[in-house]
Design goal:
The protein is of the alpha+beta class. The protein contains 23 helices and 32 strands. Strands 18, 19, 20, 21, 25, 26, 31 and 32 form an 8-stranded mixed sheet that branches. A 5-stranded antiparallel sheet has the order 3-4-5-6-13. Strands 12-7-16-17 form a 4-stranded antiparallel sheet, with no helix packed on it.
Length: 802
């Protein structure tokens, strides 16, 4: 049995309290989590089953608690949903009693000890909402279960005799009292306090971190056995329910305000924990060093799928590097005359006749997905809200709806809260609602906001750059006559008008934009400090690197909004605001369905032309793609966000692999052939493991899979496929012989054992070769490895602190 198989088998046993001993002598054990699980995926734990005959002072409060975790295996850097039922309601306003604390820990030998847990770095604001010590690593001497005499190792050096706490011990064995040098409030994933609603339920999306994000935990990193084999290190999810009675017996309900004290590390509190094993995919290099490499590039829509496919493709003998660039840039590069340019691009629309003139482009459908509006919103309503809404206060909202005009308002900074200075000096913006929660149109679509507090979103998080997907968002907006009228300057039914700075862009007419412009260049300058230079749109509503980042920041409720003037910074400057606090989070972003799923985000229903409020379900995406519009290339369809059909999700996306066969050498042809065979077979099997189709994608249809398979087959007869191409010889193209003949690609078996024979021919754009394209720029992008986006996260965190 392989090391990986042993770990998977062991994790299955762990859920039932069994022990697994690996050949290295490492023992993994859990004694408290009695979980039901299938292949280590979703887990359900009854607190009472995990703690039979408990003598906890809060046992009666926890007796009916049931915790559910939606994924515990095949994990990477992502969000998982932790939900619960059967709890007592959290005290109003503050986190005084009856709430949930969650943390991630490492532990190779057995269940983790407190020193192995990432905990104790909350934001200042959140720390002020909980009782003394609740957010810390301290241990109180008033806990009857704690004996200071036998725990002198926990005495904090240089502090009073009664000061005890747990240092942090990293996976490499280094222990430190200065744990904030290892993780802090901007990098930790700890959930200091999660609220339980009046109905006894609650949920939170917990950010799971790998060894690339938290090297001190080492989750998913290589653990080496004595025989030299390795496996990805497992870690632990620790859930600590908090009641209303402190370890010393004090009932917090008698205090004003009611607040429990002491940290989750106090022995009497720690004994109430529920521990669930987490199994990670390996984060180390997936393909052997020295393999031949093949570069591909293109749309972000494919990025999550391709990242998953890369390890599965390693066995082919080729390492595939993916460079994420805009669709228009990708279309330009595959017809570039620069040696070394990729000849395969993932795009949602084909090349124009002008771009493809003089060459031959073939297309294969490879992925179905969608653009979504993801959100992380907590109910934050006043006492005037209906009882069924007020009962959810502080818990997550799951039923957001957007229409075209509301998105148009957000993208044009037309709400006062999205404008520097809140529209000071601009009579149009000053007459508009402060934010969407004050917009009657939004509240009519989302009645739960009828008695909302002042919490507002940090705009609509959007990525920098251009893409076909962004153009589809604008096409969808333009499908609504009322949205088009708004973009043209006509007030909505309640008198709200577009930010005048956007009128000149003609966003509702003419060429469809393929980006999200920020046209308001006004600056807000405070009168509090003469040295303050003021901030503008890109400080308060910045762009983000990509849609992965918009989703991630939505999860963390941190928009990197730099409007906090710090005169003591050297030099003085603006700092980013802290993340929004649990209970008052309101973050919304434009992202991919796969990124939203990866980070455990809810996605909004959106209205289509018929007025249907549609979620991006598999059926709704498939229905939309079935009604896509034929393009100028036979067999290639493009998105139709203004489609009239009922029940379609209007922002569905279909990605094609576009290949320039005239500039293709035999080595690349074989690599592309293998890639298409894999992507149309094994790569379309949905699942969370490496090599599979991630959540957020819909398997391509049988016809689409057959078309991809047929194109893969035709790549094996390169000379036949190149018929009609102008033959050019390049020093880098060793496949062209001195006589000018082009050899066929040697037969290569498909990586899938389930591949069926082709039934249809490839989709081909075969145009005149008389005119050629010259002067196209070469993008020297660095191929994106499996963990590429994750490795830069810590650098971004450091940058954001500045």
């Amino acid at each position: 049995m392989s090391a990986r198989s042993r770990v998977l088998a062991g994790l299955s046993l762990l859920a039932g309290g069994a022990v697994l001993t690996l050949s290295s002598g490492i023992v993994l054990v859990t004694a408290s989590a009695q979980a039901s699980t299938v292949d280590g995926e979703p887990v359900s734990v009854n607190w009472a089953d995990a703690h039979p005959d408990s003598h906890s002072a809060n046992a009666a409060s926890f007796a009916n608690l049931v915790f559910n975790v939606d994924q515990t295996a095949h994990l990477g850097h992502q969000g998982i949903t932790v939900s619960w039922e059967g709890g007592l309601p959290t005290t109003p306003s503050e986190y005084g009693a009856n709430f949930i604390q969650i943390m991630q820990c490492w532990g190779d030998i057995a269940e983790p000890t407190p020193d192995q847990c990432q905990w104790g770095a909350p934001s200042t604001t959140l720390q002020n909402l909980v009782g003394s010590g609740v957010a810390t690593r301290s241990v109180s001497v008033t806990d009857p279960a704690f004996d200071p005499a036998t725990n002198q190792a926990l005495h904090v050096p240089g502090q009073a005799e009664s000061s005890f706490a747990y240092p942090f011990t990293s996976v490499n064995g280094e222990s430190t009292w200065n744990y904030l040098s290892v993780f802090d409030s901007t990098t930790t994933n700890e959930v200091t306090a999660a609220r339980t609603g009046l109905d006894g339920t609650g949920s939170v999306t917990f950010e799971v971190q790998t060894s690339l994000d938290a090297p001190h935990l080492g989750c998913g990193g290589e653990a080496t056995q004595s025989d030299g084999s390795t496996f990805p290190r497992a870690c632990w999810l620790v859930i600590v329910p908090r009641g209303s009675i402190d370890p010393d017996g004090t009932d917090s309900s008698t205090s004003i305000p009611p607040r429990i004290t002491q940290s989750p590390f106090s022995p009497s509190v720690w004994q109430d924990r529920v521990v669930i094993p987490l199994n990670f995919e390996p984060v180390s290099q997936s393909c052997p060093i020295g393999q031949s490499e093949q570069r591909v590039l293109g749309s972000e829509i494919i990025s999550d799928a391709f990242t998953s496919w890369q390890p599965g493709l390693c066995a082919s003998g080729t390492t595939y590097g993916f460079s994420m660039i805009g669709d228009s840039e990708a279309r330009t590069q595959i017809v570039s005359t620069v040696t070394g340019s990729s000849r395969l691009a993932f795009v949602s629309s084909p090349l124009s006749e002008e771009q493809s003139a003089g060459t031959k482009i073939v297309y294969a459908p490879v992925a179905r997905s969608a653009i979504v509006f993801a959100y992380n919103i907590d109910y934050n309503v006043t006492a005037d809200a209906p009882d069924e809404v007020f009962s959810k206060n502080g818990t997550r909202l799951h039923n957001l709806v957007f229409n075209q005009r509301i998105v148009a308002k957000l993208l044009t900074q037309s709400y006062r809260a999205d404008n520097p200075g809140f529209g000071a000096g601009d009579s149009v913006i000053q007459g508009n609602p402060n934010s969407i929660v004050d917009d009657p149109e939004f509240v009519a679509l989302n009645p739960d906001f009828v008695a909302w507090n002042s919490a507002a979103p940090q705009g609509l998080l959007t990525a920098l750059g251009s893409s076909d997907a962004y153009a589809d968002v604008w096409k969808w907006i333009r499908s609504s006559p009322s949205a088009v009228s708004f973009l043209g300057g006509t007030p909505d039914d309640w008198g709200m008008r577009i930010n005048p700075e956007y009128l000149a862009l003609n966003l509702g007419t003419g060429d469809v934009p393929d980006s999200f412009p920020k046209a308001d260049l006004s600056t807000f300058v405070s009168t509090d400090d003469p040295a303050e230079p003021g901030y503008g749109s890109l400080d308060m509503r910045p762009y983000y690197n990509d849609m992965q980042e918009t989703a991630y920041r939505t999860l963390r409720a941190d928009g990197n909004v730099k409007t906090n003037w710090d005169p003591y910074k050297n030099p003085p400057g603006y700092r980013a605001l802290p993340a929004q606090e649990p209970g008052s989070r309101m973050m919304i972003s434009i992202t991919t369905a796969s990124a939203a799923a990866r980070y455990g985000l809810d996605v909004a229903r959106i209205t289509n032309v018929n007025g249907d409020k549609v979620s991006p379900s598999d059926d709704a995406i498939a229905a939309a793609i079935a009604h896509f519009t034929p393009s100028n290339v036979a067999g290639v369809k493009i998105a139709n966000p203004s489609g009239q059909e009922a029940d379609i999700y209007p922002l569905a996306e279909l990605v094609y692999a576009a290949i320039n066969v005239c500039s293709l050498d035999s080595t690349s042809a074989m690599a592309y052939r293998t890639l298409l065979n894999y992507s149309s077979t094994d790569g379309q099997v949905q699942g969370s493991a490496r090599g599979m189709l991630p959540v957020g994608y819909v398997p391509i249809s049988a016809d689409e899979a057959n078309a991809s398979s047929a194109l893969a087959t035709s790549l094996g007869s390169l000379s036949r496929l190149k018929k009609g191409c102008t033959l050019t010889t390049s020093k880098s193209d060793s496949s062209v012989t001195s006589s000018g003949s082009i050899p066929d690609v040697a037969p290569a078996p498909s990586p899938s054992s389930t591949t069926s024979g082709p039934q249809t021919g490839p989709t081909v754009d075969h145009l005149s070769w008389v005119t050629s394209i010259a002067g196209a720029g070469f993008l020297a992008g660095i191929p994106m490895c499996v963990a590429g986006p994750l490795m830069v996260r810590r650098a971004r965190n450091l940058r954001d602190k500045l």
